[in-house]
Design goal:
CATH class of the largest domain: Alpha Beta
Number of helices: 19
InterPro entries: aa-tRNA-synth_II/BPL/LPL, Ala-tRNA-lgiase_IIc, Ala-tRNA-ligase_IIc_anticod-bd, Ala-tRNA-synth_IIc_core, Ala-tRNA-synth_IIc_N, Ala-tRNA_ligase, Thr/Ala-tRNA-synth_IIc_edit, tRNA_SAD
Largest sheet: 9 strands, mixed
Shape: globular
Strand content: 15-25%
Protein name: alanine--tRNA ligase
Distance between the termini: 65 Å
GO molecular function, one term: aminoacyl-tRNA deacylase activity
Keywords: Aminoacyl-tRNA synthetase, ATP-binding, Ligase, Nucleotide-binding, Protein biosynthesis, RNA-binding, tRNA-binding
Radius of gyration: 27 Å
Structural class: alpha+beta
Organism: Candidatus Nomurabacteria bacterium RIFCSPLOWO2_01_FULL_42_17
CATH architecture of the largest domain: 2-Layer Sandwich
Bound molecules: zinc ion
Helix content: 40-55%
């Protein structure tokens, strides 16, 4: 049974189950609505409000029972990727009910799907042993016994789920374990009974500082990690042998003269995650989601360099990954040009640092022969057999050379590496940048005369107009302002139509006429990021930044335009005159350029 078949069996099975069936709801974006949360990490995230307000489900979905396959990204275990189970991107199968059915149905459906649809044997199941106001879950235990399961185990805190965040629905769970190809029992499915609302976090609940209140309905929330399920059904020793990964791993194996299993797994996992993050319009940057994406991509390039994969290997990977997923997520094909342009741009930015690591290799080889290189007063070797950690750190700090690649190179040349020294220097570096002041922040305009200042404000309006007219995936990639005209380069997968250009001009001129105030606020960087202020591509920002807003802002800092920017700007848009697009052209694949003037 391949991955596509299991997905469709799961959805069909629940579509027919229970009175009125389950509504199939498409996966929500990897980017949650909540700006303080980086990525969607579980299937229930988008449904959390319905457990407290179940009537809303009737309105939003036309029923109380839902089934989904949700894309998720988790980056907490990123360093463990490469073993048999850890992944950054994964899918989660789940059925949900907001008062539509009870424990008996939830458990029976799971039992039927696992044993009849998938033909797996259940090793054992668990149920909650009870604590405080929460009773021992005898009901679940009895239901499993009636279904003929013999091994039913009472467990404690591990089988009480939630709440996530500061408060929310939570309750006892029952888990299903099956044997994998290695003969180990693995948890396949977790069925949560959201019976309570907790007024504090899980930590507070465990410490006895939060209380539980019964919810008006019994909520069902189940989650089954797709990749692990697949490995079990397909009887594979690890997820990388399933049909979701096998073609990627094969390609890497065939094309790497220096193959290494763990690195190949890291490339497979990270690149797949990167593709899905890009699909949701995130591009690499030095903060937040963009930084996660940058780390994933750069790790891929680093590992590919160690394994000597051919240049442009990643173009082939995009094709393979598209083949694996296009039936389920058609957007992967629709956005392929955009994905290519984002990866290509990051590869280009990372080219020099990668080359720098190879220069380090040559210098280390020379050091073996007695030619000892120095940077300032730090020498490349600490002693005859040990590479200096401080030297590696300095190369990272000055040129951005990847530390893990240089460490790798040194070890392969039989040097020891002083890694404590690297970590110590990194820590100091982080503290230094934390205390960096507003004064260090440049950005903004170099030439401050009346004409350039007006064009600068028009530039901010133009970027907002492009996002409003062409779409939120538009990202600024370069800008230049002279006394005569403004210029903006931006990510966009197509030539703007005449109609789009007209709409963009009209949008800007409307805002000019509206006489909107332009205001500057000093904000902590993390807040500025979380409210979605536009940032300059590749720039490093201090802890406090200035953000320019155009038009009124509400309590959540929503505004027409908000950009990290050093200014200066006009104080009101009515000072600008009339905006006109002079030219729209391509500058590179996936990057367009607009020149505009004020008349
Ligand atoms: Zn600006």
């Amino acid at each position: 049974m391949d991955s596509n078949e299991i997905r469709s069996r799961f959805l069909k099975f629940f579509e027919q189950k229970s009175f009125g069936g389950h509504k199939i709801i498409p996966s929500s974006s990897l980017i949650p609505g909540d700006p303080t949360v980086l990525f969607t990490t579980a299937g229930m995230q988008q449904f959390k409000p319905y457990y407290i307000n179940p009537e809303a489900a009737d309105k939003d979905f036309g029923g109380r029972n839902i089934v989904t396959i949700q894309k998720c990204v988790r980056t907490g275990d990123i360093d463990e990727v490469g073993d048999a189970t850890h992944l950054t991107f994964f899918e989660m199968l789940g059925n949900f009910s907001f008062g539509g059915y009870g424990k008996r149905e939830a458990i029976t459906y799971a039992y039927e799907f696992i044993t009849k649809e998938l033909g797996l044997e259940i090793s054992y199941v668990t149920f909650y042993e009870g604590k405080g106001v929460v009773d021992r879950d005898e009901e679940s235990k009895d239901i499993w016994a009636l279904l003929g399961i013999r091994d039913i185990r009472a467990e404690g805190a591990d089988v009480f789920w939630g709440p996530t965040g500061d408060s929310g629905p939570c309750g006892p769970t029952t888990e299903i374990y099956c044997k994998n190809a290695n003969g180990d029992d693995v948890e396949i499915w977790n069925i949560v009974f959201n019976e309570y609302f907790c007024d504090g976090s899980r930590e507070k609940l465990d410490a006895g500082e939060a209380s539980l209140k019964k919810l008006p309905i019994l909520g069902i929330d189940t989650g089954m990690g797709f990749e692990r399920l697949l490995a079990t059904v397909q009887k594979k020793k690890n997820v990388f042998e399933t049909d979701l990964f096998f073609p990627i791993m094969e390609f890497i194996k065939k094309n790497s003269p220096n193959y290494e299993e763990r690195s190949a797994r890291i490339i497979s996992d990270h690149f797949r995650a990167a593709v899905f993050i890009i699909i949701d319009n995130i591009t690499p940057s030095n903060t937040g989601r963009g930084y996660v994406l940058r780390r994933l991509l750069r790790r891929v390039f680093t590992k590919a360099s160690t394994m000597e994969l051919p240049s442009n290997f990643w173009l082939e990977l995009i094709t393979i990954i598209t083949g694996i997923y296009e039936k389920t997520y058609s957007e992967i094909k629709e956005k392929s040009d955009f994905i290519v342009s984002v990866v290509k741009e990051e590869e280009k930015l990372f080219e020099k640092p990668l080359e720098g690591a190879q220069v380090y290799r040559l210098d280390l080889e020379a050091a073996k022969l007695g030619v000892i290189k120095k940077m300032g007063d730090v020498s490349i070797l600490k002693d005859k057999n040990t590479a200096s950690g401080l030297y590696i750190y300095k190369l990272f700090e000055t040129f951005g050379n990847p530390i893990d690649l240089m460490t790798d190179i040194a070890k392969k040349l039989a040097f020891k590496v002083d890694e404590d020294e690297i970590n110590k220097a990194l820590k100091e570096h982080q503290e230094k940048s934390r205390t960096a002041s507003v004064g260090m922040f440049k950005g903004g305009l170099a030439n401050h005369n009346e004409k350039t200042i007006k064009l600068h404000t028009a530039h901010h309006l133009l970027l907002a107009a492009l996002k409003a007219v062409v779409g939120p995936s538009v990202k600024q990639r370069g800008s230049n302002i002279t006394e005569e005209r403004l210029r903006i380069d931006f990510l966009c997968d197509h030539k703007l139509t005449d109609e789009e250009k007209k709409k963009v001009e009209d949008w800007v001129n409307e805002k000019i006429k509206a006489g909107l105030d332009v205001t500057k606020r000093e904000l902590p960087r993390h807040l500025a990021e979380s409210i979605g202020a536009e940032m300059e591509f590749g720039a490093k920002y201090p802890d406090t930044v200035s953000v320019y807003f155009i038009g009124p802002t509400d309590s959540k800092y929503n505004a027409l335009s908000k950009e990290f920017c050093g200014g200066p700007h006009v104080t009101n848009t009515n000072q600008l005159g009339k905006f006109k697009i002079q030219k729209e052209e391509a500058v590179a694949q996936g990057i367009r350029r607009i020149k505009g003037v004020l008349i």
